[in-house]
Amino acid sequence: MCESYIFFCRLHVALFFGSVLASACPKSCLCSEKNGLVVVQCASRNLEKIPSDLPRDTVSLLLSSNHITKIPGQAFKNLPRLQELDLSRNSIETVEAGAFQGLSEGLRVLDLSNNLLRSVPKEAFARLQAKIRLSNNPWHCECTLQEVLRELQLDPETVNQVSCHTSIQEEYAGKPVIQVLDSGINFCNFHHKTTDVAMFVTMFGWFTMVIAYVIYYVRHNQEDARRHLEYLKSLPSTSQANKDFDVVSTVL
User: Fold this and answer.
1) Are 97 and 119 a contacting pair, CB within 8 Å?
2) Beta partners for 132?
3) Helical H segments across the chain, by residue range
4) Do strands 30-34 and 37-41 pair parallel, antiparallel, or not at all (unpaired)?
5) Interval 4-31: pLDDT, tens
6) Nearest partner of 23 among 8, 38, 9, judged by Cα
7) Rounded-to-integer distance, Cα 101 and Cα 73, Å
8) Which positions fall inside the LRRNT domain (predicted)?
9) Strand pairing class (58-62; 37-41)
10) What CA–CA distance (Å, rounded) separates 82 from 98?
């Protein structure tokens, strides 16, 4: 009798928590719970954005193989216990600066591989201690990406798959970013040099315009002066006018 009572109590508790979990789970996903830890399975659900009604006790959020294009600011702010976040195989092009704000240092894995990322703001990964997978994205290698990678703990198994799809220095396109940086290349220095060259070209252009204007102004004034001088020459001189006046006086 006692054992039967305990069994029904456990069943009641299980059904109760199961109903609570089901009500908190996004309708496009499947949620499972064990020892108070919630796993949310949203992979391959044709999602276009990150669900907003996620259980607060979620420790694993699987969002791979969807159609998500953007990670907005504070998208995971209500998930303080999250340990694994899988966003691989989406179409993510934009990661906002505060995208992972609110995630604690308990996050262990962040997977952004196989997306459409070309660059990310360095503030996006602030305070994260997780191993991050950034492989198979069309990265543009320049100063910002270099500064981002300097602050991250890249997954060692995929680090060589983080390659320069394009680069401010074309000869590095197609090469692993870490390999390029380990060779001593500093994209930030090149960025400064490029800025200096651009500034020099701009200043030279303005200087050329000023010189051209001065030359035009001088030549235009010279032409006016020449015409004025020719006009003056065409006028009767004062001595000739006096002689003509004397002749007329003599005749009279």
Assistant:
1) no
2) 110, 154
3) 2-24, 143-151, 177-182, 187-234, 238-251
4) antiparallel
5) 443 333 433 343 344 344 448 998 899 9
6) 38
7) 7
8) 24-60
9) parallel
10) 16
